[in-house]
Amino acid sequence: MATLVRSVAIAHLAVLSLGAPVLAQSAAEPVALVVAAGRPLRVALDKRIAVTRVGQPVAATLIEPIYAYDRLVIPAGVAVLGHIAALQDASRAARVQALLSGNFSPHRGVVLQFDTIVLPGGLRRPIRTTVGPPTVHVTVRFAASDRPGNAGDEDKVAVGDRARQAVASARQEAAQRARDAVALVRQPGRLERLKAAAIDRLPYHPQYLAKGAVYDAKLAVPLDFDTQPPLARAPEGTAPAPESILTARLVAGVTSAATLKGATIAAIVTQPVLSADNRLILPEGAELGGTVTLVRKARRFHRNGQLRFLFQSVRVPGADATTLLASLYSVQVNESDRIAVDEEGGARATNSKARFIAPALAVMSMRALFDRGDRRMDGDANDSLPAPASGNVGSRGVGGFLGWSLAGTALSFASRPVGIVLAAVGTVRTVYGAVFGKGRDVSFPADTPIQVQLAPGPSRKPSS
Predict the structure, then answer these.
(1) Count of alpha carbons within 13 Å of 22, Cβ hemisphere only?
(2) What are phi and psi of 315, to 5 degrees?
(3) Per-residue pLDDT band at 78 (split at 50, 70, 90)
(4) Greatest mean pLDDT range, 68-72, 143-147, 428-432
(5) Under the phi-then-psi rule, with left for phi > 0, alpha for psi from -120 to 50, and beta for the rest, what region is 241?
(6) Residue 97 · residue 105 · CB < 8 Å
């Protein structure tokens, strides 16, 4: 009997000894580091390119790092190579609009294809992408009260309060990451911009791809970076620190022109969220769910659109959604869109006071053109000279330019009646556009990079 008991005990210990490694291995089971199809690679062109032919090579720089699950797999700053895949004829509407603007060489649609990414160490990996339209002058807009560099930021953190210092440090780090992404975009200088603008005003001019133009190149096939042991997961129910910043991208576009109040929105977390002890809280790929809380369409008299949304839940793949409250902290937009983000995360379009310059010049040119410059015959020696031509040369040129660009300037010099007509067209166009015209809507396309800030206090708890 004793022998039987001893045998059972030995067998039980053997099972336990075999089971322990299996459980340990299961807890640290490697994860596949895959950049899924549909993930956009955000790239910026390295130089200005004159569009000449299909197959023409293009070179760009990755401006945002790419993460897979819990770690970095492609750092920002690597080269992405491609070519012009197709040149599409401009639509009839685009050609008409170009003609009305004095442009007799409407731009063709340029379809890019990026097919190679140069990883650190020089390793080249083939990729397949579909490329969207460019953002020519990208910039980052921060929430009004949290713009990096604001005076008094240090005063917000009490000396010795480690928790608040950690939050402030995390926010500064997040803001720096957003600034660094834009810093990688090699924007043209002021002189280069003026030169490009002058060329674009010519009636006939070559087509260029702008230096620093940012494209979203969506992967058509996944990128596999093998498997790696994952980081340790934070205990269940662990929430990111209050007021911390999450980096994400919008799944679908949202606009004040068409999105309805109460509409649902979603964003994908693009950088993993870690705890203070380097444990994984949210992996890359977690989905934020939210609701549009305010929509105001753009209206006449330059009343601009407004948009506000809040994220209220987060869902990790393979798990149930949990509650979370976060608002917009920063967003990458086109500089010309003039977007401002308020302290509550609402976005609105703003007007430039410079918009009144063109109408003022147009009115002045019209006045000069109708001023006949008649002189009183007072017996002076200059009585025999002919009266000056109606309107000076500068007024004619300005009026014609505002009416029909450089082509209008040339016609205004050739004919006074034509100059008056073009100046009148320019006056109506600029005054209507600056005073009576419709304002700008707030539009964030799909895949727009954003950062969201969690609410103060407990930011997440299990949903009921």
Answers:
(1) 6
(2) -135, 125
(3) very high
(4) 68-72
(5) beta
(6) no
Site of tokens 């790929």 = 285
pTM for the model stands at 0.81
Homologous superfamily (CATH) of 237-351+439-464 is Type IV secretion system, VirB10/TraB/TrbI (2.40.128.260)
Cα dist. 59→63, 113, 222, 304, 445 in Å?
13, 11, 21, 37, 24
- Report the Cα–Cα distance between both ends of the chain, in Å, rounded: 54
Predicted local confidence at residue 433, as pLDDT: 87
* Domain 29-137+187-230: homologous superfamily in CATH: Type IV secretion system, VirB10/TraB/TrbI (2.40.128.260)
Dihedral sign for Cα 325, 327, 330, 332, please: positive
Report pLDDT digits (tens) over 194-239: 777 777 778 888 899 999 999 999 999 999 999 999 999 998 888 8
Boundaries of every domain in the chain: 29-137+187-230, 237-351+439-464, 354-373+388-436
What phi and psi values does residue 147 have, to the nearest 5 degrees?
A: -65, 135
- One fold for both 29-137+187-230 and 237-351+439-464? yes
